[in-house]
Predict the 3D structure of the following.
Amino acid sequence: PAWAKQKHLVNSGKSWIKVNLSEVSVFTYPEQPDMAVVNFEQDYTSSNLSNRMKKRQYWIKQNNRWQIVYEGAA
């Protein structure tokens, strides 16, 4: 998936990564059970970056597997 490729590209130059999540919430829609919106606070630290931010992801269930199709600031 495109999301995974982007994450791999961004993180390929780092020697280590540590990610902690908190305040996680998952919302599904009764009319669209194969779609979910996930909100969370991310504490990200790597060999060359450190930040904390609120994020939102959109997940779609395809072929009985959940995939992230979008991630951005919340």
The first helix runs from residue 2 to 11. The mean pLDDT is 93. Residues 17 and 49 are 9 Å apart (CA to CA).
